[in-house]
């Protein structure tokens, strides 16, 4: 009696093993956490740039108002100065009498963010780069 042995075809492996899948997920999670961290730093840099630009605008308006004789800056009182920035003020004498100096394009959150880059001195706001 003769036995015929049939060769079974070799099974080819399809798909990923569980270990390969877990390693891939781990690598993707590390890369995504690095990307989120990098984007967070870029977002803070954009906020700082916006606040610096607003601070420069505020310092310019304050300098013009100060030169015109408007009581824009209240010495020693940052809250009153911020109120003058929002509401505006006008000189009581001189060529600019009756002209209102204010920041119409900036709201209170933008002004408060920009105040990090401004130093409140006796009669003027000075722009500073450090933001401390």
Percent of sequence in beta strands: under 5%
Poorly predicted spans: none
The average pLDDT value, as a whole number, equals 81
CA distance, first residue to last residue: 97 Å
Whole-angstrom Rg:
32 Å
Report the structural category.
Answer: mainly alpha
Q: Name the strands of the widest sheet in spatial order.
A: 1-2
Write down how many β-strands occur, each being a DSSP E stretch of 2 or more residues: 2
Oligomer: single chain
- Along the chain, the helix and strand elements come as HHHEE
What would the principal axes of the Cα set say about the shape? rod-shaped
Structural description of this entry:
The protein is mostly helical. The protein has a domain at 52-132. Helices cover 52% and strands 5% of the residues. The chain has three helices and two strands; from the N terminus they run αααββ. Strands 1-2 form a two-stranded antiparallel ribbon. A hairpin with a 4-residue loop joins β1 and β2 (125-127). α1 (18-68) packs across α3 (108-114). The longest helix is centred in the N-terminal third of the chain and has 51 residues, at 18-68. The chain is rod-shaped. The termini are far apart. 16% of the residues are buried. The model has no long low-confidence stretch (mean pLDDT 81).
Task: Reconstruct the topology from this structure.
Blueprint: H1 18-68, H2 78-87, H3 108-114, E1 118-120, E2 125-127
Antiparallel strand pairs: 1-2
Helix pairs in contact: 1-3
Give keywords.
132 residues, mainly alpha, two-stranded antiparallel ribbon, 52% helix, rod-shaped
């Amino acid at each position: 009696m003769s036995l015929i042995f049939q060769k079974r075809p070799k099974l080819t492996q399809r798909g990923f093993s569980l270990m390969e899948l877990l390693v891939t997920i781990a690598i993707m999670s590390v890369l995504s956490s690095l990307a989120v961290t990098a984007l967070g730093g870029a977002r803070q840099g954009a906020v700082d740039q916006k606040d610096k630009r607003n601070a420069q605008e505020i310092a310019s308006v304050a300098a013009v108002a100060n030169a015109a004789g408007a009581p824009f800056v209240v010495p020693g009182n940052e809250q009153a100065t911020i109120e003058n920035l929002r509401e505006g003020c006008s000189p009581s004498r001189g060529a600019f009498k009756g002209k209102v100096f204010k920041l119409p394009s900036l709201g209170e959150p933008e002004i408060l963010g920009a105040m990090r880059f401004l130093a409140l001195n006796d009669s003027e706001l000075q722009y500073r780069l450090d933001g401390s």
